[in-house]
Specification:
36% of the residues lie in helices and 17% in strands. It is an alpha/beta fold and 390 residues long.
Length: 390
């Protein structure tokens, strides 16, 4: 072991000084992460005695490899402490289930993405009637209601928590807002009713930050992932009851996971897997070391695939695109915000192939730099808009 003290620099100034114990053997395992370590300056790394690190790490010929280990450890300690545990042979994931949960932080809130673009392109006008097909916390709905006088809104969501939060957030608008507890795929669209429809797809921060909903491997919780708590199928049912081939297929199709077969094999070997952390550990143990320490956690794509399957997200989206245009008045617009390529591909082709719609966006509208700085979730948002033909 080598005891190191090091300085962390930010904008040219020393930000903090910290210490860590670096196992010599980590050099071989962690050198691949060096290129991802931001602004690592070997000159700022010193031993507790004040001697430059390169003078105390043994044979000078090994200095580069050892500095690689240092930089990788700094990366894991400072840059992504929540996503990645410290490197070790077993790749054990530490559960933070013992950490007191912040109930205030779990309150359903929604920062609407592409807010200016949505309102401008929907062309909200006084007395109009609009549909928010994924009301969430009510962010986009409020923008629509504020955009013009006497606007009426129908707000639907399959998540009861979201609907309750939206009712409180939009309470001041009274009877101008009608709330419907429903998945947009099962909603009965009234013909020629709405001047505009908005759908903001994907999982919210609330779902990821609420452990008991079982969407995230950052918290130890039961494998659930149901947006609508009334449905019976959970992620645990899929993981523990579906056969290996089915699991591999959904990981590849809905998560675009190229190691789907080896991951599915490991899951079957370790079943039953009942918690998010247990599943994430099984996935991580199935992939090569360099894959474990990549840009994203190795369980990310599998968790996406499970969420899509449990909530039948892509089939629901197809139904929305098929039925919603008939609910628009002539000249009415539909705006759909997607967050990954599978969704965006469906939206792109679905709007283009609808006989009732004229596509207004040849390319998707994306967030500007200023919005991305203020709301990181907007980075992957893609907005496509179409208009009901006269």
């Amino acid at each position: 072991m080598v005891c190191l003290s090091y300085k962390v620099w930010r904008n040219g100034n020393r930000h903090r000084q910290r210490q860590l114990l670096l196992p010599r053997g980590d050099a071989a395992r962690t050198s691949l992460a060096t290129e991802r370590t931001a602004s690592f300056n070997p000159a700022t790394v010193r031993t507790t005695g004040g001697t430059p690190a390169s003078g105390c790490l043994g044979n000078p010929s090994n200095t580069l490899a050892q500095l690689c280990a240092i930089s990788a450890v700094l990366y894991y300690k400072l840059v992504q402490p929540l996503q990645y545990p410290m490197p070790n042979a077993q790749f054990k994931m530490k559960s933070d289930s013992q950490t007191p949960f912040n109930l205030e932080a779990s309150t359903f809130s929604h920062i609407p993405v592409l807010r200016r673009e949505v309102i401008e392109d929907l062309a909200v006008h006084p007395g109009g009637h609009y549909l928010d097909a994924t009301v969430g916390g009510g962010g986009h709905s409020r923008l629509i209601l504020e955009a013009a006088e006497n606007v009426y809104l129908t707000a639907i969501d399959q998540d009861e928590d979201a609907l309750i939060a939206a009712q409180k957030y939009l309470a001041e608008y009274g009877e101008r807002v009608q709330f419907v507890h429903s998945n947009f795929a099962t909603y009965k669209f009234p013909p020629s009713t709405f001047d505009g429809i908005i759908a903001d797809l994907g999982v919210s921060s609330y779902h990821l930050d609420t452990p008991e909903r079982g969407f995230s491997f950052r918290h130890a919780a039961n494998l659930d992932m149901r947006m609508d708590q009334r449905q019976s199928l959970t992620a645990a049912d899929v993981i523990n009851e579906w056969d290996e081939g089915e699991l591999a297929d959904i990981f590849f199709k809905y998560g675009e996971e190229r190691l789907s077969r080896r991951i599915a094999r490991r899951i079957v070997e370790r079943r039953p897997l009942l918690t998010t952390v247990a599943l994430a550990e099984a996935i991580a143990s199935a992939v090569p070391p360099k894959y474990r320490y990549g840009r994203i956690h190795p369980a990310t794509r599998v968790f996406q695939a499970l969420r899509i399957v449990v909530n039948d997200e892509l089939k629901s989206l197809e139904t929305l695109i098929e039925q919603a245009p008939n609910a628009l008045v002539p000249g009415g617009k539909i705006a759909i915000i997607s967050f990954h390529s599978l969704e965006d591909r469906l939206v792109k082709h679905g709007l283009r192939n609808s006989p009732l719609l004229r596509v207004l966006t040849k390319k998707p509208i994306t967030a500007q730099d200023e919005e991305i700085v203020n709301n990181a979730r907007s980075r992957s948002a893609k907005l496509r808009i179409a208009e009901r033909k006269e």
